[in-house]
């Protein structure tokens, strides 16, 4: 199992508009190999907030198949801008590995960002261990 984390920083006060995109399931929830999505939100400072969209996949092949699918293209084209977090998640073997390496993007200095997203980074992690409550393990 892998976790693909799309971490992005948004202008303070602008997170509601970004979070709204994730309130209802999109095509990804029905895609083969998809396990779950968690959307996390935190205030970073008076100027910025952080949103992390973490998707769990059976394997890298399932994630890569989704990034190459019509479902992925349609979900990201609807906004008329870059994909969630400002970039297309990189498929397996692209440098987005468990070490936390990722690609960050940001608005050029001196220009006003067109969206509330200030920067983004996509990282793929290999799941090494998962611990569930004792009641879940025996069910």
UniProtKB/TrEMBL annotation:
One GO MF term on file is: monooxygenase activity
Keyword Transmembrane in record: no
| Keywords attached to this entry | Monooxygenase, Oxidoreductase
Q: Where is the composition biased (Low complexity)?
A: 104-116
Alphabetized PROSITE patterns for the sequence = ABM (PS51725)
- Superkingdom is Bacteria
Q: Which residues form the ABM domain?
A: 2-91
Q: Where is this region: Disordered?
A: 67-117
| Designated name of the protein | Antibiotic biosynthesis monooxygenase
Identify the species of origin: Paenibacillus sacheonensis
């Amino acid at each position: 199992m892998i976790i693909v984390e799309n971490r992005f920083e948004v202008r303070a006060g602008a997170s509601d508009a970004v979070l709204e995109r994730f309130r209802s399931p999109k095509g990804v929830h029905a895609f083969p190999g998809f396990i779950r999505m968690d959307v996390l939100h935190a205030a970073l400072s008076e100027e910025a907030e952080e949103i992390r969209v973490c998707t769990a996949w059976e394997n890298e092949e399932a994630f890569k198949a989704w990034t190459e699918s019509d479902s992925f293209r349609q979900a990201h084209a609807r906004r008329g801008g870059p994909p969630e977090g400002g970039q297309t998640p990189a498929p397996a073997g692209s440098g987005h590995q468990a070490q936390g390496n990722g690609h960050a993007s940001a608005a050029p200095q001196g220009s006003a960002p067109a969206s509330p997203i200030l920067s983004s980074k996509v990282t793929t992690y290999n799941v090494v261990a998962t611990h569930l409550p004792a009641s879940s393990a025996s069910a």
